[in-house]
Design goal:
The complex is a heterodimer.
Chain A: H1 13-25, H2 37-40, E1 73-82, E2 85-95, E3 100-104, H3 111-118, E4 128-136, E5 139-140, H4 148-154, E6 155-158, H5 170-181, H6 188-198, H7 202-205, H8 218-231, E7 236-240, H9 248-261, E8 266-270, H10 274-280, E9 283-288, E10 296-302, H11 303-308, H12 313-319
Parallel strand pairs in A: 3-8, 3-9, 6-7, 7-8
Antiparallel strand pairs in A: 1-2, 1-4, 4-5, 9-10
Chain B: H1 42-66, H2 72-94, H3 97-135, H4 139-142, H5 160-191, H6 196-207, H7 211-225, H8 232-256, H9 260-268, H10 273-284, H11 286-301, H12 305-310, H13 329-336, H14 342-370, H15 379-419
Helix pairs in contact in B: 1-2, 2-3, 3-14, 5-8, 5-11, 5-13, 6-8, 7-8, 8-11, 9-10, 11-14, 13-14
The chains are: A alpha/beta, B mainly alpha.
Organism (chain B): Rugosimonospora africana
Main location (chain B): membrane
Function (chain B): Part of the binding-protein-dependent transport system for phosphate; probably responsible for the translocation of the substrate across the membrane.
Chain lengths: ~325, ~425
């Protein structure tokens, strides 16, 4: 069953999808030659990953993402400071295109700082500095000629606490990214519907798109934030403990959403919940900081490997709940 | 999962569940008796009343009869202190010391509150009583003082010219001060940097600036140096000087209340700073900012001393703020209350009451706007929302029929594409 949201242009679904692609793709700085990741991952699930939720049941248009190459993210020797206090020590990590990468570790080990470095949010903290490079699609996002706003448009972020804009309706919340980034889209209604569907929220809010975003439950608010991030079609979606403020039911819905997005967007998720990391991610990185060493990666690799056969004894202790 | 509950749908009796409103659906045993937490006991009331009576009686004997003192203020002050002592004494013999201290502080706080209410009520009541003779003539609201001399009865003359002057000056001052004040607050909150601290200090100092200085400044600057001439405009500029720091300070507090998570969310979506401010920060703070503006207006409309030096004074209606003197309500009051004729004084008090009503209206407006959370809709917005929804429903039901066949085709086509 499909429902067309108000579509002023009168065009059908094909036009709607084309609008999404044109609207956003046209604004992206022309990247010379994206690495050939499509051949490796043709928009489908990564081999060996849990079977994805059947998106076609909800989305008659088949696999959702318009045919865009998936883009990976890589950090090389990233260190970070707050003032003189060093919080991250030479973190190098590859986040594979279309995969869900989980960052786990005890509190205060620099996971969130690392995540915020990945879309240039770290520099907004007073006194914060960093070293190293972060490669999006093979290009450093900290190159002097790159605008932070441009980078953030391609690398979206979902925060720990759901933060829909209270002065906007659900519809306007989803469309807010376009307004904030100054993007013009031919068919905004279709884009809003697409984004809400991808975030798994459409069926719950379709009849009250003009209600204020703050009137939703916590879990719905968080999925609204995910939809908002997806509306500017980012290549990468960063999630900073997206479920820590939610109840178990809402957590499951958000995890379902992540599972649906996997293969469409590169996702990096910080979580304290090891079961969650095991459930949603394909790759995993274990961060650790002690009182005299800044945060660093102890072990990274396939999630299954980290959880079933950790190489480092500290990783084993952590994933088996012996500390942290 | 449907948790959208508009505030007005909430059952009204949840809020004030007094003993009268009992849950209707309570079958079975008789309704429970609610525990009374704060009990007013007979002995508590008697102690209080007894101490009050005893205090006044004792003071009367000592103050009026034995000691060589007199005067109403001294009497009531001594009476109050004696009452407190007696109350403490009577308490010590029957309650624990901590309980006595509790009750004593309670009595002190309640009497402080009552005193403030009494003072305000006295002010308003006095003004109303003195102004009533002028107020109950309709011509007071429609006439100017152009043809009314000091000896004329209250059936001639009025304050329309001062009312017009006040509204115009307040309007001009608001137009000037709101953009400047809000921009300054935005600078302090959103931009910051090393310059923010001196600016904030100056704004704070300006809040404490004696109003007459604002008047003197404009008098020296606009009237003496630039030769503008005493006019409503000059008065409005003086009021602007007064209003800017008030608007800035309040707006700064309001803007700081906007959660930083919203700004972060906006930046994370690729928003620039200016778009974040325009699309996220200001709309979120809108109702608070409106309150800030209205409170500053209420403050400005009652200012006398900036107007005193800059507006000039006239008995005529001068609707043009840019030329010639223009009277405002505070100036009107200040001028006529000094006349020896009771009719003039009545007019001044009548104008004072009008001014108070104006300030009260502005405050009520501020409460009305400021009491709303961001995202909460006004009645008009709710009506628009309902209409828009109905329109959506119509479009949707129209489409759904035609859409089903299209969807079938589409899924078929997509399956074909997937297979390739």
């Amino acid at each position: 069953m499909t429902v067309e949201f108000v579509n002023p242009s009168g065009a059908g679904r094909h036009a709607a999808d084309a609008g999404v692609v044109d609207g956003i793709g046209g604004l992206r700085p022309a990247d010379p030659a994206p690495p050939d990741v499509t051949a490796e991952l043709p928009g489908g699930p990564v081999p060996g990953s849990p079977p994805p939720v059947d998106v076609t049941a909800q989305w008659p248009g088949g696999s959702v993402p318009p045919d865009r190459p998936l883009v990976g993210l890589e950090s090389r020797d990233v260190s970070a400071w707050f003032g003189t206090h060093k919080v991250l020590e030479r973190v190098s990590l590859r986040m594979r295109p279309g995969e869900v990468t989980a960052l786990i570790g005890p509190s205060g080990c620099g996971k969130s700082t690392y995540l915020r470095i990945l879309n240039r949010m770290h520099e907004m903290v007073r006194g914060a500095s960093l070293a190293g490079e972060v490669l999006l699609d093979g290009q450093d996002i900290y190159r002097p000629d790159r605008q932070p706003a441009q980078v953030r448009r391609r690398i979206g972020m979902v925060f720990q606490k759901p933060n829909p804009f209270p002065a906007m309706s659900i519809y306007d919340n989803v469309a807010s990214g376009l307004k904030l980034a100054g993007i013009k889209v031919a068919n905004k209604d279709a884009l809003v519907e697409t984004s809400l569907r991808r975030a798994g929220l459409w069926n719950e809010v379709r009849s009250r798109l003009r209600a204020p975003g703050g009137a939703l439950s916590g879990g719905q608010q968080q999925r609204l934030c995910i939809a908002r991030s997806l509306a500017v079609s980012p290549d990468v979606l960063l999630m900073d403990e997206p479920c820590s403020a939610l109840d178990p039911t809402s957590t499951r819905r958000v995890e379902d959403t992540i599972a649906e997005l996997q293969g469409q967007v590169t996702i990096v998720i910080v979580t304290h919940n090891m079961q969650q990391a095991a459930r949603v991610s394909q790759s995993c990185a274990f961060f650790l900081a002690t009182h005299d060493t800044p945060g660093h990666i102890v072990e990274a690799g396939q999630t299954r490997g980290i959880f079933e056969d950790p190489q480092d004894s500290r990783t084993a202790d952590y994933v088996h709940g012996r500390f942290g | 999962m449907d948790t959208l509950a508009p505030p007005d749908n909430r059952p009204a009796n949840l809020e004030h569940g007094g003993p009268g409103t009992q849950a209707p659906a309570a079958p079975g045993p008789a309704a429970e008796r609610r525990v009374r937490i704060r009990q007013v006991t007979m002995e508590g009331v008697c102690t209080l009343v007894g101490a009050a009576l005893g205090g006044i009686a004792l003071t009367w004997v000592l103050y009026q009869r034995i000691l060589p003192t007199s005067g109403a203020v001294g009497f009531w002050l001594c009476g109050y202190v004696t009452f407190l002592c007696l109350y403490a004494l009577a308490g010590v013999v029957q309650w624990e010391p901590r309980d006595v201290a509790n009750r004593l502080v309670g009595v002190l706080l309640v009497s402080a509150g009552l005193l403030v209410i009494a003072v305000v009520a006295d002010q308003i009541g006095y003004t109303a009583v003195r102004g009533y003779p002028a107020l109950h003539h309709l011509n007071f609201f429609t006439d100017t003082m152009a043809l009314a001399g000091p000896l004329d009865p209250l059936t001639s003359g009025g304050m329309i010219h001062a009312l017009v002057g006040s509204l115009e000056q307040m309007g001009i001052a608001t137009v000037f001060s709101v953009p400047l004040g809000v921009l300054c607050a935005l600078f302090l909150v959103e931009v910051g940097g090393p310059l923010a601290r001196p600016v904030r200090t100056i704004v704070e100092a300006m809040t404490a600036l004696p109003e007459i200085i604002a008047g003197l400044f404009i008098y020296a600057f606009l009237i003496l140096s630039l030769g503008v001439g005493a006019s409503g405009f000059a008065a409005a500029v003086a009021l602007t000087v007064m209003m800017i720091p008030i608007v800035t300070r309040t707006a700064e507090v309001i803007l700081r209340l906007v959660p930083s998570g919203l700004r972060e969310a906006s930046y994370a979506l690729g928003g620039s700073q200016i778009r974040t401010v325009l699309n996220v920060v200001l709309p979120t703070a809108r109702s608070g900012l409106a309150t800030a503006v209205i409170l500053a207006m209420a403050r400005a409309v009652g200012e006398t001393s900036p107007v005193l030096l800059t507006a000039g004074f006239t008995k005529d209606l001068n609707a043009n703020p840019f030329s010639g003197p223009q009277t405002s309500l505070p100036l009107y009051i200040w001028n006529y209350v000094r006349y020896p004729q009771p009719a003039m004084v009545s007019r001044a008090f009548g104008a004072a009451l009008a001014l108070m009503v104006m300030v009260l209206l502005l405050f009520a407006l501020a409460r009305l706007i400021g009491g709303k959370a961001p995202g909460e809709l006004t009645r008009r917005q709710r009506r628009q929302l309902r209409r828009a929804r109905e329109a959506d429903q119509l479009v949707r039901s129209d489409r759904e029929a035609g859409d089903r066949s299209l969807a079938l085709e589409l899924t078929g086509a997509d399956r074909g594409a997937d297979a390739q």
